[in-house]
């Protein structure tokens, strides 16, 4: 890969983050809603401040958040802050910054996302490949069908169904939360098992909700590849079925699947965020839920921009991995 | 031999009507048929429901609270005193409205931009393409969260929901239509039309557009699916029009009142099943149309 392509990809990454940040900067400023005024309005209703004091407070807060400066200056300062991952203070948990809120919930989300995405990608890709391969046994091929039927079911709804049938009816697994109420987090096996028990349902919801998509795209790819000359050639060379399946068929069908993964990252992350909110796991999703309920705008915007940065970065990394998988790209 | 083809008997060949051809195609494309059937059933449910049920009962304090399904309230009532049958009917209607509106706007913008981009090429093309490429990785739902969150709660209605969803939904159709027009531009019938002196607009409308209809239909169904999905997610996060019985809103309300913990299982389950039917049917129709539009992915068996 040449230096020029690397620069181009990095530039693309910067452009994506810039576009997202700009949208997030300007949309709230187009609306008539004033977060600080709303916040202090609430305080005034409960606290009994005099209206003049409230106005002073609002003015000083506006100054502190830099909202009294000209728009362009605010914009520059804001872009600078984003390069330092500084999204300002949380309104509802004041001394904490939005970045700290994100950092606290991030490990949970990364753990859940990594496990579920890898599992559903691998299972879906293999099932799809097997489903399209004419020589695979019938029982294996038919295993793909139930997953394809689940394609239309969003992970959140899958979560609700699992909550009802497995959590509420059968009482096999807990209904939500990160660990049982009253348990103190410690480095012990009992706590670890308790923790894992609470992760099973959300993980299942995400996996069942997304495997079907991978099955479908892989099956489509597999069907097109079977007619290709190189597969026929391999058959005429007398290679074993397993060898053809692995080296000629799977290897070539896998490439678009990796591109698909890069494109699906946005959906994958948002699904995880919403499922986390549903199950009350202490990840980014719950942080976003709480922030929406409390009108905590710095945290909402921080989470949105942070996730965009993460997705754009992952896409860029996948772009760099792509030539390692595909010799044709490496040659050019 | 040539004379045989001219015999009168040959002229009375039975031409199957459009309907039979349609039904025959449906028998081959079973997914499409099933999807269309479910959508028809849902439409029937909504239309009959809107006539039979009083839509006012879909709003809070119109029925007794927290009743499980019974003869009088077939789907039960919720914590806020909605008759859930009425809520399902109205919610289904509103979901359809948002989906069709947002899907329609998204597809229209996509078709216009895709055509402009592919047909005129040059800097217009690269500008539109770059914009699409840069906007695609940004998680649409999160931007929608920012938009919906910046609005005054009173301004969030079914129509603003549709607009919020449509605003960031045009990139997909733009790229699909652009790619199709690009290939079609090189086809012979377009060159012939150009050589015969047809203008840009009549080539677009008389030559290219009719050939694109299956793709546009597929893009439209895909957009409706995406719009229903996105508005559902927004509502589940509590960013929908809170008074309206949108399916996602019902789930949000049930979730925030701890419906399962309190044993009100019917409350979140009913909108969940309704949503499965809607999204499942749309996904089936979408796949079926893809098969119709792209012969390359037609089943090999």
From TrEMBL, chain A:
<dbReference type="InterPro" id="IPR000515">
    <property type="entry name" value="MetI-like"/>
</dbReference>
<dbReference type="Pfam" id="PF00528">
    <property type="entry name" value="BPD_transp_1"/>
</dbReference>
<comment type="similarity">
    <text>Belongs to the binding-protein-dependent transport system permease family.</text>
</comment>
<dbReference type="GO" id="GO:0055085">
    <property type="term" value="P:transmembrane transport"/>
</dbReference>
<keyword id="KW-0813">Transport</keyword>
<protein>
    <submittedName>
        <fullName>Oligopeptide ABC transporter permease</fullName>
    </submittedName>
</protein>
<dbReference type="GO" id="GO:0005886">
    <property type="term" value="C:plasma membrane"/>
</dbReference>
<feature type="transmembrane region" description="Helical">
    <location>
        <begin position="299"/>
        <end position="325"/>
    </location>
</feature>
<feature type="transmembrane region" description="Helical">
    <location>
        <begin position="112"/>
        <end position="133"/>
    </location>
</feature>
<feature type="transmembrane region" description="Helical">
    <location>
        <begin position="199"/>
        <end position="216"/>
    </location>
</feature>
<keyword id="KW-1133">Transmembrane helix</keyword>
<feature type="transmembrane region" description="Helical">
    <location>
        <begin position="6"/>
        <end position="27"/>
    </location>
</feature>
<feature type="transmembrane region" description="Helical">
    <location>
        <begin position="253"/>
        <end position="279"/>
    </location>
</feature>
<feature type="domain" description="ABC transmembrane type-1">
    <location>
        <begin position="106"/>
        <end position="322"/>
    </location>
</feature>
<dbReference type="InterPro" id="IPR035906">
    <property type="entry name" value="MetI-like_sf"/>
</dbReference>
<keyword id="KW-0812">Transmembrane</keyword>
<feature type="transmembrane region" description="Helical">
    <location>
        <begin position="145"/>
        <end position="165"/>
    </location>
</feature>
<keyword id="KW-0472">Membrane</keyword>
<feature type="transmembrane region" description="Helical">
    <location>
        <begin position="172"/>
        <end position="193"/>
    </location>
</feature>
Automatic annotation (TrEMBL), chain B:
<dbReference type="InterPro" id="IPR035906">
    <property type="entry name" value="MetI-like_sf"/>
</dbReference>
<feature type="transmembrane region" description="Helical">
    <location>
        <begin position="132"/>
        <end position="151"/>
    </location>
</feature>
<keyword id="KW-1003">Cell membrane</keyword>
<keyword id="KW-1133">Transmembrane helix</keyword>
<keyword id="KW-0812">Transmembrane</keyword>
<dbReference type="Pfam" id="PF00528">
    <property type="entry name" value="BPD_transp_1"/>
</dbReference>
<keyword id="KW-0653">Protein transport</keyword>
<feature type="transmembrane region" description="Helical">
    <location>
        <begin position="272"/>
        <end position="289"/>
    </location>
</feature>
<keyword id="KW-0472">Membrane</keyword>
<dbReference type="InterPro" id="IPR050366">
    <property type="entry name" value="BP-dependent_transpt_permease"/>
</dbReference>
<feature type="transmembrane region" description="Helical">
    <location>
        <begin position="215"/>
        <end position="239"/>
    </location>
</feature>
<keyword id="KW-0813">Transport</keyword>
<feature type="transmembrane region" description="Helical">
    <location>
        <begin position="32"/>
        <end position="53"/>
    </location>
</feature>
<comment type="similarity">
    <text>Belongs to the binding-protein-dependent transport system permease family.</text>
</comment>
<protein>
    <submittedName>
        <fullName>Peptide/nickel transport system permease protein</fullName>
    </submittedName>
</protein>
<feature type="transmembrane region" description="Helical">
    <location>
        <begin position="96"/>
        <end position="120"/>
    </location>
</feature>
<dbReference type="GO" id="GO:0071916">
    <property type="term" value="F:dipeptide transmembrane transporter activity"/>
</dbReference>
<dbReference type="GO" id="GO:0015031">
    <property type="term" value="P:protein transport"/>
</dbReference>
<dbReference type="GO" id="GO:0005886">
    <property type="term" value="C:plasma membrane"/>
</dbReference>
<feature type="domain" description="ABC transmembrane type-1">
    <location>
        <begin position="92"/>
        <end position="288"/>
    </location>
</feature>
<keyword id="KW-0571">Peptide transport</keyword>
<dbReference type="InterPro" id="IPR000515">
    <property type="entry name" value="MetI-like"/>
</dbReference>
């Amino acid at each position: 890969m040449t230096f020029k392509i690397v620069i181009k990809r990095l530039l693309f990454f910067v452009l994506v983050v810039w576009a997202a940040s700009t949208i997030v900067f300007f949309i709230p400023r187009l609306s008539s809603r004033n977060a600080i005024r709303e916040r202090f309005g609430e305080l005034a209703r409960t606290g009994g401040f005099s209206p003049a004091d409230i106005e002073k407070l609002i003015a000083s807060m506006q100054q502190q958040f830099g909202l009294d400066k000209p728009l362009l200056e605010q914009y520059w300062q804001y872009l600078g802050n984003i390069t330092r991952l500084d999204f300002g203070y949380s309104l509802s948990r004041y001394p904490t910054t939005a970045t700290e809120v994100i950092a606290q919930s991030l490990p949970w989300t990364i753990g859940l996302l990594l496990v579920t995405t890898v599992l559903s990608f691998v299972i879906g890709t293999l099932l799809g490949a097997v489903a399209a391969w004419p020589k695979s046994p019938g029982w294996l091929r038919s295993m793909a069908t139930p997953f394809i039927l689940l394609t239309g079911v969003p992970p959140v709804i899958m979560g609700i169904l699992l909550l009802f049938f497995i959590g509420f009816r059968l009482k096999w697994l807990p209904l939500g939360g990160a660990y049982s109420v009253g348990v103190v987090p410690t480095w012990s096996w009992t706590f670890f098992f308790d923790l894992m028990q609470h992760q099973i349902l959300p993980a299942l919801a995400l996996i069942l909700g997304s495997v079907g998509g991978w099955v479908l795209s892989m099956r489509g790819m597999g069907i097109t590849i079977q007619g290709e000359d190189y597969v026929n050639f391999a058959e005429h060379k007398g290679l074993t079925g397993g060898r053809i399946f692995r080296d000629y068929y799977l290897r070539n069908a896998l490439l678009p699947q990796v591109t698909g993964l890069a494109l699906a990252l946005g959906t994958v992350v948002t699904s995880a965020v919403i499922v986390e909110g549903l199950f009350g796991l202490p990840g980014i999703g719950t942080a976003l839920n709480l922030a929406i309920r409390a009108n905590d705008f710095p945290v909402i915007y921080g989470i949105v921009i942070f996730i965009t940065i993460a997705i754009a970065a992952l896409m860029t990394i996948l772009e760099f991995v792509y030539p390692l998988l595909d010799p044709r790209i490496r040659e050019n | 031999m040539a004379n045989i083809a001219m015999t009168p008997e040959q002229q009375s060949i039975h031409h199957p009507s459009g309907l039979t051809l349609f039904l025959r195609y449906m028998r081959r494309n079973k997914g499409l048929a099933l999807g269309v059937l479910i959508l028809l059933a849902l439409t029937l449910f909504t239309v009959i429901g809107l006539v039979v049920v009083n839509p006012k009962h879909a709003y809070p304090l119109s029925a007794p609270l927290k009743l499980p399904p019974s003869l009088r309230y077939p789907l039960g009532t919720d914590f806020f005193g909605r008759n859930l049958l009425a809520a399902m009917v109205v919610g289904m209607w509103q979901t359809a409205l948002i989906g069709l509106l947002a899907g329609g706007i998204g597809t229209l913008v996509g078709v216009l931009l895709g055509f402009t981009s592919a047909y005129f090429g040059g800097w217009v093309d690269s500008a539109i393409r770059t914009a699409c490429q840069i906007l695609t990785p940004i998680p649409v739902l999160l931007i929608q969260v920012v938009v919906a969150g910046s609005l005054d709660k009173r301004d969030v209605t079914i129509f603003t929901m549709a607009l919020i969803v449509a605003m960031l939904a045009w990139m997909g159709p733009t790229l699909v239509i652009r790619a199709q027009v690009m290939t079609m531009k090189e086809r012979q019938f377009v060159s012939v039309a150009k050589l015969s002196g047809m203008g840009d607009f009549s080539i677009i409308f008389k030559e290219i557009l009719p050939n694109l209809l299956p793709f546009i239909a597929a893009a439209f169904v895909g957009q409706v699916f995406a719009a229903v999905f996105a508005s559902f997610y927004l509502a589940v996060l509590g960013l929908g029009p809170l008074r309206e019985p949108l399916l996602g809103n019902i789930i949000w309300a049930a979730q925030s009142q701890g419906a399962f913990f309190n044993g009100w299982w019917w409350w979140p389950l009913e909108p969940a099943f309704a949503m499965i039917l809607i999204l499942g049917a749309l996904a089936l129709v979408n796949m079926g149309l893809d098969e119709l539009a792209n012969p390359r992915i037609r089943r090999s068996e």
